[in-house]
Specification:
This protein is an alpha/beta fold and 296 residues long. The protein contains ten helices and nine strands. It has a single domain, classed as NADP-dependent oxidoreductase domain (TIM Barrel), CATH 3.20.20.100. Helix 6 links the parallel strand 8 and strand 9. Helix 1 packs parallel to helix 9. The relative contact order is 0.16.
Length: 296
């Protein structure tokens, strides 16, 4: 496990209920729509009607931030969101991404990265069409293409923003140095990197987001690593609170930092409702400290 360089956990205060993502203020427990596609994040889901029900139920439960990407399916996740939720209710923020290409049913990570400005222009137009909207609330560069200067890639996004087709710009899968470089080109309002209670290689990025008012969207939010084993502090605390280790992993993120915006995803209505209950889990200072100590 990577060493923890800083404890962000504030055990003495209740976590805030909302977080700012640029001009938007959203509830701090969002929904990630990657798992609504077929196996391997490719193709149609086995039950498209259920996928649409999951999206609608998420909004009913108070989710007003939904994250997706053009490569989920590809195209499938965005289209399902448009079918299930458009026209969008007031206050509902839809975030999408471009820059990674799904290579097909047999493709394996890492996905190919494409940052050509022409490709960015094309993908934003297609995302607008599939999501049935005139402007993307939050558009995120899915990854920085090492073959294309980030100034060119994000320059395309800035032009689209000036045209009113993108409202806010975020980044994904980036280092601290890349965030600082990108910020010279565009106003960055969010970062989406891997982060969870058992794996925290992005402490420096989270600290930067806290200091500069950027929202931090942790992907893979429910991987508990060794902490989620039956003998781990996370699992022990979960049992004491009649919760699951996944719920406690989400609750930990909410307590971890005020800029944290977890986006757990699922294709199950049951798991969706379980995940949403994580916001109501309150642990004692001692329990959070034990979990934090075990993670170091």
């Amino acid at each position: 496990m990577d060493p923890v360089t800083k404890s962000h956990l504030n055990t003495t205060a209740q976590p805030s209920k909302t977080v700012k993502v640029g001009q938007f203020e959203v509830n701090r427990l969002g929904y990630g729509a990657m798992r609504l596609t077929g196996e391997g994040v490719f193709g149609e889901p086995k039950d498209p009607a259920n996928a649409r029900k999951v999206l609608q139920r998420a909004v009913e439960l108070g989710v007003n931030f939904i994250d997706t990407a053009d490569c989920y399916g590809p195209e499938v996740s965005e289209r399902l969101i448009g079918e299930a939720l458009a026209p969008y209710k007031s206050g509902l923020v839809i975030a999408t991404k471009a820059g990674l290409v799904h290579p097909g049913p047999n493709g394996k990570p890492p996905l190919p990265i494409v940052g050509n400005p022409g490709y960015i222009f094309q993908q934003v137009e297609l995302s607008l069409r599939r999501l049935k909207t005139d402007a993307l609330d939050l558009w995120q560069l899915h990854a920085i293409d090492p073959k294309v200067p980030v100034e060119e890639t994000l320059g395309a996004a800035v032009k689209l923003q000036e045209q009113g087709k993108i409202k806010e710009i975020g980044l994904s899968n980036v280092t601290l140095a890349e965030i600082k470089q990108a910020s010279k080109v565009a106003r960055i309002v969010s970062v989406q990197n891997i982060y969870n209670v058992g794996y925290r290689p992005n402490e420096d990025v989270l600290t930067y987001c806290e200091e500069n008012g950027l929202a931090f969207l942790p992907w893979f939010p429910m991987m508990g690593g060794g902490l989620a084993q039956r003998t781990g502090k996370l699992e022990q605390s979960a049992r004491r609170h009649n919760a699951t280790s996944s719920q406690l992993s989400i609750a930990w993120l909410l307590h971890c930092s005020p800029v944290m915006l977890p986006i757990p995803g699922t294709s199950s209505l049951k798991h969706l409702e379980e995940n949403m209950k994580a916001a109501g889990i309150i642990l004692s200072d001692k329990e959070w400290a034990e979990i934090e100590a075990e993670a170091k």
